[in-house]
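User: We ran a pulldown and think these components assemble together. Before we commit to crystallization trials, I'd like a predicted model of the whole complex to look at. Sequences follow.
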Amino acid sequence: ATQEITASIWFPDTYPLVTDGYQALAQALDQQSGGELSLKVYTGDSVLPPAAHLSGLRDGIVDMTYHAGTYTPSDLPADNVLAALGISFNDSMVLTAAVADFYLNDDQMQQMFRQQGVVFLGSYASPSYALMCTSPVVSLADIAGKKIRMPSPIHAAWAASVQAAAVNVPSSEMFTGLEKGQLDCAANSPNDLKTRSLWDVAKEVTLLDLGQYFAGWQYAMNQGAWSDLPEESRQLLIDSISDNLVTMTIAFEQSVAEALAEAGDHGVTIHEPGADLQAALDSFVAEQVEPMALEVAARLNVEGAADLISRFGAVYDKWQGLLADVDRDDAAALQAVFSDEIYGKIDVSAYGLN
Amino acid sequence: MENLTIGFLGLGAGLILLLLRVQIGVALGLVSFIGIGVLLNARAAWGMLTAVPFNFVGDWNLTAIPMFLLMGFVASETGISSGLFRAMRILLAWLPGGLAVASVGACAMLSAASGSSVATSSAFARIATPEMLRYKYDPGLATGVIAASGTLGSLIPPSILMVLYGYLAEVSIAKLFMAGFLPGLLSATMFIAMIVIRCSLNPRLAPAVTDTFTTRDFLVAAKEIWALPTIIVGVLSGIFIGLFSPTEAGAVGAALAICLGAARRSLSWGALYRSGLATLTSTAGIFMVVIGTTLLGKFMTLSGVPGFIASSLLSPGSTQLLVIAMVAVLYLILGCFLDSIGIMLLTMPIILPVAREVGIEPIYFGIILVKLLEIGLVTPPVGLNVYIVKAALGERVPLVSIFRGVSWFIAVDLITLALLIAFPVISLYLPSLMD
Amino acid sequence: MMLQTVIDVLASNLAGRPIPGNLEVISVYHMVLVVFLPLAFVEMKKEPIAVDLVYRMLPDIVKRWVLLCGYLVTATFFGFLAWKTGGDALRSFAMNEMMMGAVFLTIWPAKLALPVGFGAALLMVLANAWQAATDPDFNPSPDVPEGAET
Ligand code: NA
Ligand code: NA
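Assistant: Here's a predicted model for the assembly, 939 residues in total across the polymer chains.
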């Protein structure tokens, strides 16, 4: 019999996590199963509001979702402790692999997912954030007094440490905010220059690497829906996700590269950060980020947070080593490593089945 | 049962409940709850009741609605709006339907500041309509003009819908904004022309001013005229200079109205209390409808009804004009029972590839889509702008009269739409200057 | 809500320092309070938005039955909503639920507003239903239409 998995991701159709993530996965499943296993993808908030992509998955409104973990810190405490470290990472392929590896295998993470009634299947990581501004922001002196849309409380704390003001506006008001001057800068992945037309209003981009976002999951399934799948479908899903994560992450990075390459045609100047600005960020990351992650842990009652952070750090380091000599554009080589080191080791007759 | 059958049965059941005077939010919400329960299972249906109400309300863009309503109620309680309209009545005595024409102008001005159509309507429903009713305007005209002119909010930039379309279709938002200007002005002009023609043919719609005015009357009126424009100009310039966002503008406008009311000594604690209370009941009434329509949107998506309608109307390999005509039919149908953002999200994956295939200019196409979605805001039975006007006025005008009044504006909008489709240059001239 | 937004606008422009978490507080707390708590009041004033096109044309006795059934349907839906959002609020309270934007924000008190609002609206609808059933002169429209009439 043919089977349909329903899925929801609240980004619009043009976002890399949708086109190269969900839609590509749907195609792969369809081809490899000969039409037996299909993925029905709902985008935007047509089925679930963004913040409800966990509760809706738990309640089985759809079988699979993408979820931005920071929307539900109390439901996903351990995930949010690690997400607080986001500002310190800058290699999205290593981060994607490390998160998948850690979340699939670490007991504390697995217990968190079990409590929610969801089965974690795949990770994601955004390309690094950069500053998209209306006036050049290169040095410490430039950034002081600027109003910047920051993606997280940690980023907001950094902004405060360099005398900038963090402003929280929804993404739908980012364009008009920059246009009318309520915002001087937005810190986001630079593919937004193109996808959100920010290059019409933010003509000065500074490639200050403000870290990456990976909280929650790219693919997770409702526990009941996962265990109802026959074993061969679960295996097919796991194998397809393994390959998909690599091509999706490459495409996500490429969307940034493309946007930056085309930005010049739209009158955008791209700056490298000044030494003092970079140094201020580096020292913040070195000194403040881990204590702040521990503060988040205390707030969310996560036990053994220091240990959690160091276990994750070890897995990240392992992946830096594993991918050190792999060409980041060689999808096949990367897929081989993902399969050998992560997804090939999953036993679908036991994983996620209580 | 087939999912589609469940979807269509649900729509029918909802319509019956509506006609039996069950309040709109409850009728649509309950049908969707049961529908999702039948489609999926009880747990999912219950889950939707937690997922929707709380998360939907936390939407920052909607915070403008209560604030603009408050601004309107305060302006009306303190006599600020009646002052202006008394003056305008004298100054516009020569123009048939003068107050209605003035309302179109005022809505167009606010549209240039606000990105949302419902916000625009909510701001003026309370300011302008009661004044038109006071001067014995036809209730359908007095309400329809506000519901319809509010839809300029998304056509004249800035516009939340255009930001969304720009994102989905990957076209420049700045160009879309430029492209919206002339079509917005055209729509406003068409509205005004229709009002003037109708009112001169049938003066009972908007009783002409027969009193004779002395110079003294003019002076008294002139003294009254400044307050409301001060608020509106204050709000508009604040947005343009970048002091605050369109969403925050509602709050600033309400505060300004309170300050001016105090300065005119027409603000009492009683007036403040009544404004606050009216704002609360109107807001709760509107959001109950919004929750119902949102639940209906989720139910429809899961049942596949919008996709079915879209794919049965659109077939690849047609001509440009045929595609546009079919999209127009599709949006007018969906506009009857879904909200604008929902329609756009649901149909873009089907429509965009077809439009690209036949090579329709994306900016021109976006403007036509936005215009279509705007018409959907005033078509029955789910016409959000009409509900807004209704909520701001309470029981003074029946919903049916508002829909009847607005039908004239829909007719004019269809002509405007035909012009926009026939002459792409109306949409594309201004953006072409940007290159 | 208005005051806080205005103060935020002033702070942001005059001092260059917006209120941290202003967006979250307004969209979560104020909006929830403004939207849900007055629901019962809307019912009390009989102002929910409804279509009375067909209803107006019905004979009086049918009107009463339709009205009564309508109130019961409405009460059922408010009951569902109150029950479900109440459970959600309890869950939220039990885990001291927070949300994270620019700041961390405890959200269970806001979630509590939903069952309270829906529950009060439910009681008010039942009261209206009782009146509609017992009082032949019951008027389902607002009692005192205000202002200049048409
Ligand atoms: Na506008
Ligand atoms: Na409609």
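The first strand of chain A starts at residue 3 and ends at 9. That may be worth checking against your pulldown data before setting up trials.

User: Thanks, that helps.
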